[in-house]
Specification:
Structural class: alpha/beta
Mean pLDDT: 79
Radius of gyration: 17 Å
Largest sheet: 6 strands, mixed
Low-confidence stretches: 1-41
């Protein structure tokens, strides 16, 4: 009986995570001082970083200033990540000319060798960055994957989505459109 109970609790936990029960969502607000005044939810700040992309070029958070950016934390063998990334790819292709950027950070260094082949197979053209230690997972407070942080044009984190959920995908696109001024 205990085994059935623990199995049921485990399945319910998995269902809750896959349905986006862990998503945090702060109201979309403009960047700068207005954003600071309107946002009261405790979203962690992303630490500055400089990480290599798949070609070895160093990329930083600073270079994203001036654009609305989704920072995606993933790893290649993550099932939810592989369900979500095709959507993020389409989002990037659809809105990049309007000022939207997407950057993905692999948080599982043991899978760095797979990244180039994995990215080619998925047809991903946005920057994909490598990490060399698990310290990144702690620094960015990533407890599960996928985790996405939506940044305003001043790199202030305005929204955080944890776990894969079709509902999160809809909310992500709505937030991106509003932040780009496409939905007023």
């Amino acid at each position: 009986m205990y085994k059935i109970f623990t199995t049921a609790v485990g399945l319910l936990s998995i269902f809750a995570v896959t349905q986006g029960a862990l998503a945090q969502d702060a109201p979309v607000a403009p960047s700068g001082a207005e954003a600071e005044a309107e946002l009261s939810i405790d979203l962690p700040e992303l630490p500055a970083f400089e990480l290599p992309d798949l070609t070895g070029e160093m990329r930083s958070l600073e270079e994203l200033k001036g654009r609305v950016t989704m920072v995606n934390f993933f790893f290649p063998s993550c099932v939810g990540c592989n369900q979500e990334l095709p959507f993020l790819k389409r989002l990037y292709e659809k809105y990049r000319d309007f000022g939207f950027s997407l950057i993905s950070i692999n948080i599982h260094p043991a899978q760095n060798r797979q990244l180039t082949r994995w990215a080619q197979k998925g047809g991903y053209s946005h920057p994909i960055l490598r990490t060399e230690s698990d310290a990144w997972r702690k620094a960015f407070r990533v407890e599960g994957t996928p985790t996405n942080c939506l940044l305003g044009d001043d790199n202030t984190m305005l929204k955080r989505y944890e776990g894969y959920s079709p509902h999160n995908l809809e909310r992500m696109e709505e937030a991106v459109r509003r932040m780009l001024g496409l939905d007023k």
